Amino acid sequence: MKKKTRRRPYAEQRPQDLGGGVWSVPVPIPGNPLGYTLVYAVESPRGPVLVDAGWNHPDAWEALSGGLASLGLDVSEVAGVVVTHFHPDHAGLAGQVRDASGAWIAMHESDAALVRLMIEYAASEQDGFQSDMLRRAGADPSEVRDVMGTRPTPPAAPDRELRDGDLVDLQGRKLRAVHTPGHTPGHICLHLEDADRLFTGDHVLPDITPHIGIYPYDRDDIDPLGDFMESLDRVGELVPLELDAIEALPAHEWIFPDVAARAAEIRHHHEEKLDRLRALLAQRPEPLTIWEVAAMMTWNRPWDDLAPMLKGMAAGEAAAHLRALEARGQVRRVSGVDPVRFQALDS
């Protein structure tokens, strides 16, 4: 079993020169157990290019701008921000960096489309979408009210869109986008090919695993967990033949030496989770709602102790695992019922 490494709190983090024209700046996420996002800066003749930007909060902005300054970098000289995915702890400050420096913002086209959709949607439309999604999953009315909370402001829309294999505008370096969907549809890792380093965003983290969910929960036209596991295999194949490993520079926790080994561990974790879920469903003769399945699964604390928002995320993850089993022909969704229900198929 992998030995656990103690996650250092934000107060113990410091900006670092990682060598080879790469720096890291820890940026706090207020009120979040993750603690911080590691924002990276990559040297460029036109000014540094940031990988992610951190949460949109005054304390985070002070940490980002001050951290860059402590490394001899000026936020007003940032040339660009490439966002690994649209979540607020990664994209939140990108707009403020652009305002301060005139930098471009780039992200994968799939996440860019989601950002535009979030900007266009009125709050009332989002509330109606979320409440109906929760009801169809089997949450009772009181749970629907509890789960629905405030949402962060959408991130700034990007100026540039990336596709798999595109090189980021980084003069003198080779920083290539690697599409790794799962955590979000447009999540990307960034391979610094001239240094054999991989900025992994949330795709591969050293100790925890990223949230993989389906929204709305009952979609049957996508398989984000299947996509995620294929993406894990893909990053494991990036290691050149002449090397044993590629160093991973993740957005949370700490830098670690072997992205392929950790990707294989995460894949194994999800395979075991799918096996357990299939066995649980096989023990129940009646079809179950997504909410009932989520309550049966193992989380980092008992279901009844989860905060309402975390129950909503757990249901999204349960839905993704059910969808993966459905895609493999191991469970079926019952047609013509509301809320949607799933049942194990005979082996």
UniProtKB/TrEMBL annotation:
Keyword Hydrolase among UniProt keywords: yes
Pfam family for this entry, one: Lactamase_B
Alphabetic keyword roster: Hydrolase
Listed Gene3D superfamilies: Ribonuclease Z/Hydroxyacylglutathione hydrolase-like, Winged helix-like DNA-binding domain superfamily/Winged helix DNA-binding domain
Region (Disordered): 140-162
Flavoprotein among keywords: no
Stored SUPFAM superfamilies: Metallo-hydrolase/oxidoreductase
Protein name: MBL fold metallo-hydrolase
